[in-house]
């Protein structure tokens, strides 16, 4: 099993991150979020996630990497400045029920 980063464009192209059955509502919220995100370097709008890095550790005894997102890599659409945000979902550990080792 491979853990690490995955290009965000692949998730979007496959429809993996959109919750709406039509996609329109989620796409609008996603677009608004991108426009409102400001680059920390040049202050231009459009600082967006380009990769998800997986491998959030399990909370139980094993602490093995899970399939949950550990960090997100952002890139500015204007100046291409890159930054990494650890624990973007606010979790530092994943529940054992989502661990392939604890719950095969």
Strand order of the largest sheet: 1-2-3-4
Uncertain spans: 8-21
User: Helix and strand string, N-terminal first?
Assistant: EHHEEE
Global Rg: 15 Å
Question: How many β-strand stretches?
Answer: 4
Distance between the termini: 13 Å
Q: Describe it for me?
A:
- It is a single chain.
- The chain has 104 residues and is α+β, with helices and mostly antiparallel strands.
- Strands 1-2-3-4 form a four-stranded antiparallel beta sheet.
- It has one domain (5-98).
- The radius of gyration is 15 Å and the shape is elongated.
- It has helices at residues 8-13, 24-36, and strands at 5-7, 47-54, 69-76, 82-86.
- The longest helix is centred in the N-terminal third of the chain and has 13 residues, at 24-36.
- The chain is 18% helix and 23% strand.
Task: Detail the topology: elements first, then pairings.
Elements: E1 5-7, H1 8-13, H2 24-36, E2 47-54, E3 69-76, E4 82-86
Antiparallel strand pairs: 1-2, 2-3, 3-4
Key features?
single chain; 104 residues; alpha+beta; 4-stranded antiparallel sheet; 2 helices; 18% helix; 23% strand; elongated
Short description:
The chain is α+β, with helices and mostly antiparallel strands and 104 residues long. It has 2 helices and 4 strands.
């Amino acid at each position: 099993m491979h853990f690490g980063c995955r290009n965000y464009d692949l998730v979007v192209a496959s429809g993996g991150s959109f919750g709406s059955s039509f996609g329109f509502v989620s796409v609008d919220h996603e677009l608004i979020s991108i426009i409102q995100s400001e680059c920390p370097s040049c202050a231009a709008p459009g600082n967006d996630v380009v990769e998800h890095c997986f491998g959030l550790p399990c909370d139980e005894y094993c602490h093995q990497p899970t399939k949950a997102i550990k960090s997100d890599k952002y890139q500015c659409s204007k100046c291409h400045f890159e930054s990494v945000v650890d624990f973007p979902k606010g979790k530092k550990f994943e529940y054992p029920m989502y661990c392939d080792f604890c719950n095969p």
